[in-house]
Design goal:
The chain has 224 residues and is an alpha+beta fold. The chain has four helices and nine strands, in the order E-E-E-H-E-E-E-H-E-H-H-E-E. It is globular and about 50 Å long.
């Protein structure tokens, strides 16, 4: 199974190409480590941004979520009905400094600057379906991914707004993260989201869909 990297998300000033009409979505951008889960039949592979992971590779303790995530990915792939499905998601968590939330022994936070959960979690932000290894495939629409998450238990980044592109672009960037509340955790003061990801809510071939991000100043790469 070949590894299919997720294209870099455009930032402010990056060219977007053709910008379609129709419905769009604005999602909270989760600050973590990208992890890929690919399913072909009963075969499941896990990977980092640019390469597959070996069973013993050190990558933020990903082995702790491997078995349950593999089962969820198989179930979700069966529902999509494609020969090959690649799920792109974010591995996050590992610490939550709230007095009412017990720590998970032996874990260190995957991310710095934002607190999400005491244990390790993975949220899927995109999925590609393909007929075979030679097929470049097609990304599913976000509403399809949301339906899939509801039916299988996969976790999604919080949806902040859906509608025409101007409305999604007007979504405030500097807001508290909604991830802990979605996981049933008490809020922490000053626990801000990293930013937004804005994209069309439609199927598209790789390279044929504009996806761009907006970050708060503390996480803006352009500062560096």
């Amino acid at each position: 199974m070949r590894h299919r990297p997720f294209a870099k998300i455009a930032g402010p000033g990056d060219p977007l190409g053709a910008v379609p009409g129709g419905p769009w979505v604005a999602l909270e951008k989760i600050h973590g480590a990208q992890m890929v889960v690919a399913v072909r039949g009963d075969d499941v592979r896990f990977g980092k941004r640019k390469a597959w992971l070996a069973d013993d590779d050190p990558f933020f303790g990903w082995q702790l979520v491997r078995q349950p995530l593999g089962e969820l990915a198989r179930a979700a792939a069966r529902r999509l009905g494609a020969a090959l499905v690649v799920f792109y998601g974010e591995l996050f968590g590992g610490g939550y400094p709230h007095p009412a939330v017990p720590a998970a022994p032996g874990l260190q936070p995957v991310q710095t600057g934002i607190w999400y959960a005491p244990d390790l979690r993975w949220a899927v932000f995109d999925a590609l379906v393909a007929a075979d290894e030679a097929d470049d495939g097609e990304f599913v629409a976000f509403h399809e991914l949301a339906d899939l998450a509801r039916s299988t238990g996969l976790l999604l980044p919080p949806l902040l707004r859906a509608g025409p592109r101007p409305q999604c672009e007007a979504t405030p960037v500097r807001v508290p993260t909604r991830v802990p509340a979605a996981l049933g955790l008490p809020e922490l003061d000053g626990n801000l989201a990293e930013g937004l990801v804005i994209r069309p809510d439609a199927r598209a071939r790789p390279g044929g869909r504009p996806v761009y991000k907006r970050k708060i100043a503390e996480f803006d790469e352009q500062r560096f």
